[in-house]
Amino acid sequence: MRVAATYDVVIVGAGHGGAQAAIALRQRKFEGSIAMIGEEPEIPYERPPLSKDYFSGEKTFDRILIRPAAFWEERNVAMLTGRRVAKVDPAAHTVSTEDGETIGYGELIWAAGGHARRLTCAGHDLIGVHGVRTRADVDRMMGELASTEKVAVIGGGYIGLEAAAVLAKFGKQVTVLEAQDRVLARVAGEPLSRFYEAEHRAHGVDVRLGVIVECIEEKNGRAAGVRLAGGELVEAEMVIVGIGIVPAVEPLMAAGARGGNGVAVDEHGRTSLPHIFAIGDCAMHANAFAEGLPIRLESVQNANDLATTVARAITGDEEPYNSVPWFWSNQYDLRLQTVGLSSGHDSTVTRGDIASRSFSIVYLKQGHVVALDCVNAVKDYVQGKALVVGRVAVDPAKLADPGIPLKSLI
Fold first, then answer.
1. Does the pLDDT at position 3 exceed 90?
2. What does the alpha-carbon distance between residue 55 and residue 161 come to, in Å, rounded to a whole number?
3. What confidence tier does 165 reach under pLDDT thresholds 50, 70, 90?
């Protein structure tokens, strides 16, 4: 085996986590060699705008770069783009790419994220069926828009709803197909789900709940619609699939890393393999805001903060990961900002008037605040963070009064 090159730190994955790991290492005066290996041809760019600003044309690609090319050159971070790592050898301290290149490392940071989960039914691979995970995915969709009138979106999570909002603004006939009985079922409570369902319907989107996809129908080699269980055909020239991701951890698991739904890491981002860390969407960690349960968090916040934790560990200044989770979603003129994790809550308080389209849903467990969903309510989001971090017990009547600032309830 010939090793093409060896670096003090090799980062596999060129998304938010990988980029932040390199940035944090240099900020902490790490002077060793760093290489970032990315599957895509592009240097690191932001992922959330793919289904929002980039898809809508409001931002060009250069405006969603995490840093310009010159930044990486100035900090001596080697960008090994267009390469997919297929094998990790912990004993030899090497990774090997699909094209046979072998690269040595002193420390390995696995930040490979995940791949868009694909349908398994007939027609899943037809032209016109798209995931929303990479720039190439969105570019293909944009290239087909001119010849597309009807779009079916499979999945009523953030990605699906954000894409539906953009397409509705483009004047397309959009149908959202969700298998569960409400949208955002895995990430939000029912009041927020019903609000977004109503908003999308008000913008002309046909939101269908509790439906099962049987197959994608084909015509002239392209997708022509989605056949539902029961026989109904939802006509569509474009089908967007937003049903989650599959964590990209196969090489680590094959090398003996512990894990399951992702690769398991400790509070410093270390995997069970020596000198190998993991961060971002693919890393499964015990999270204090999930009562210590092992979870994967698919968010920019988690990728960035865990990357900084790993950089501290590598530079000898360890500090356990304990960041409060936060997320956001832009749909139409609505900005949803979430802080904390609502899973496991036993009650909710609606703060403000939902009809005003500026309100917050506060999630409680045994009387303590565990999360907030804030729609066009930035102050609640900013001030509510402290309630979540402190798991503060608050009188629900005071929470429900938008005239009482949340910061006064700490």
1. no
2. 13
3. very high
